[in-house]
Design goal:
Distance between the termini: 63 Å
Protein name: Metallophosphoesterase
InterPro entries: Calcineurin-like_PHP, Metallo-depent_PP-like, STPP_CPPED1
Number of strands: 11
Strand content: 15-25%
GO molecular function: hydrolase activity
Number of domains: 1
Shape: globular
Organism: Rufibacter latericius
Radius of gyration: 20 Å
Strand order of the largest sheet: 4-5-6-7-9-8
CATH superfamily: Metallo-dependent phosphatases
Pfam families: Metallophos
Length: 268
């Protein structure tokens, strides 16, 4: 018992330093306000009235570019009447939970809700579990006004090109029109575009055909390539728009109306 006074300061030091050190790079230690962010932001979006024209900011590939992400948030907050922000994936670089937390610490200063799609770097190590706990499902959809948004995992290489990523059965079902649907169009959001070498080549054309056959998709949004491109790759009416990385200080300003849209490249 005489040693207790000498042990107490040591024990208190251990407790106070608990939040300062990572015991292992793959550990997951999220705070309560860092969990289920997709559901929380969808709730925020659902409380907003959707106008005839939706206004979105689309960015991505934050990885280790923290200063540039801070500047993105500053630029984004200078806009008015934005419905929400889309992060196109590669939130992290090495898939460590601290990287996800650092980016969220920056992004939470946005005036607008933000949603994410998983990138290939967000599947490294233990990152898939981090993403699922911090954000939620890898594939999800929601309807906002006249538009259905479909977010899905297209990181085929990270699954060994197993023929199941992206999940085309799920995608086709989500794009299937139903008589009681309130949406007239759909926008697909994923990290890797179908014409990239990290996309499962065996699923490239089937992916495009699912979008085309739905009759509802005219725009598909992507990141990953750290540069801009915007083209009807397969010579039809579906535009595949790739947004550059924040490292290059760019993002997309997207306006969406019933059966139409406009994309604008923004530098900051």
């Amino acid at each position: 018992m005489k040693r207790l006074p000498f042990l107490l300061p040591f024990l208190m030091l251990l407790v106070s330093c608990e939040e300062l050190f990572e015991y292992h790079p793959n550990q997951i230690r999220l705070k309560s306000d860092e969990k289920n962010l997709t559901a929380l932001n969808l709730q925020r979006i659902a409380r907003q009235p959707a106008g005839d024209t939706l206004r979105l900011l689309v960015m991505g590939d934050t990885q280790r570019f923290y200063d540039e992400t801070v500047d993105f948030v500053r630029a984004a907050n200078s806009f008015s009447d934005i419905d929400f922000v889309i992060h196109l994936g590669d939130i992290s670089d090495f898939g460590m939970s601290k990287e996800f937390q650092w980016v969220h610490d920056i992004m939470k200063d946005l005036r607008w809700p933000y949603l994410t799609v998983i990138g290939n770097h967000d599947l490294l190590g233990n990152a898939r579990k981090v993403y699922q706990q911090m954000f939620g499902a890898l594939n999800y959809t929601f309807v906002y006004g006249h538009t259905k948004f479909v977010f899905l995992d297209t990181n085929g290489r990270e699954y060994g090109f197993n023929g199941h990523i992206p999940d085309l059965d799920w995608l086709a079902e989500e794009l299937r029109p139903e008589a009681d649907e309130t949406w007239s169009q759909a926008i697909v959001v994923s990290h890797i575009p179908p014409f990239d070498s990290d996309f499962d080549a065996a699923l490239e054309m089937p992916f495009h055909e699912v979008l085309s056959n739905s009759g509802k998709v005219s725009l598909s949004l992507h990141g990953h390539r750290h540069g801009w491109s915007s083209e009807t790759t397969y010579d039809d009416d579906i535009l595949y728009h790739v947004t550059t990385t924040v490292k290059k200080r760019g993002f997309t300003y997207l306006k969406v109306w019933d059966r139409g849209y406009a994309v604008e490249q923004i530098s900051y």
